[in-house]
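anyone seen this seq b4? input:
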Amino acid sequence: MTLPLASLLRLAPLALTLPASAQLVVTGASNPSAPDTHEVRLVDVVTGSSVELFPGWVPPTGDPAMASAAADEAAGLLYLSSNPNAFTSDGIYVWPYGSPGNPIPFVLDPLGPNGVLLDVQGLAVANGVVHFTSHYVGNDNGLYALSPGTGLATRLIALPITSFQVNGLTYNPADGLFYGTNDSGSSRGVWSFDTSSGDVTFVSPYPAGIQDVDGCVLEPTGAGILHLIRDTPGPIDSLDLATLTYSQTLTNPLSTQYLFAGGAWAAGLAANLPVGASYCGPAVPNSTGAAGEIELRGSSFVLVNELRVEASSLPVSSLAIALTSRTQDSVPMPGGSVGTLCLGGAIGRYVGPGQPMMTDAAGRFELQLDLTRTPQPTGLVAVAPGESWSFQCWHRDSVGGQATSNFTDGVEITFR
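predicted toks r here
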């Protein structure tokens, strides 16, 4: 079963240039005492803090435990696979970065070239194509590329089932190789896979005492750093591909022991993507003849703290100030303005150093927000997950040569 590609594209955000802010997604699936449980956590690799991405989510089809993950940073898409088990329906789900709601089915029950139902182990994205490893299917063990339109998978490299169980998979664009964690017998360790030549090469053993690694995540730093994700809380072993040495600078955020785990490098979750919902529009047209508009770009996750206000279609070289409140309203022509105030209750003004700004030559205004210092009439407050805040931009204007002011429409965001 597949989701029509056209439907997926309507849901996906545009491919944008993403900042290099570092974020790691870690998944855990099938707690031994609760097989259908899972976690999908976003980790701030600087502070170690984490947040659950999809609290309470149970996929409508397939096994409800998300076991592996992969990110398409160029398209802003996070992929998740269901619990790898040859005897149940394996599915791959997709979530556009920052979109409301939970992941949706991408491909359910991927099929091999012989019509065999394939299990999904490791998951990776290379050049916009989803790849995965399969293990519990006898002679069909190997590394596959997936066709989203048909749900059919093409085997790129065959792997002997007696010596390879590749649970973690990632792709390194720096050298064009896939890297995976192999948990099978004497072949245990990190391997590379070259789909052009078919070469399979041993890279490094696991750290001493480690036998089971479920996830493999590439951090695109230098030659690449591989973060090995295990299914239990504790340190994450990170392999520097340049020196082939391990370090432990990150911590696995899972709350309990699981049977399966995975991960993905998803820096774009703190990206240049639109979030929030517009309301109270269109605004009263300003002196340009256009209605001023406001939007939020970045991430709705408080943990990430990457959000900015952007206003457009404003008069050139006009003073502009961002406003915010937890309450919405509609007040025409407040204080002599020709526009409509879309906020109510306690309204905060961004009037700190450097925050009021002149619009640029394109009539645009942009302000980076610090969610730990949100203005209110009584002082600065920190935004908390679950809170809804609304934003609007006030700006100076003139009508018939007379000085006045106007507003954009409003935008509301619920933080996570």
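The helical segments are 5-11. The chain has one helix and 34 strands. kinda curious what u guys think
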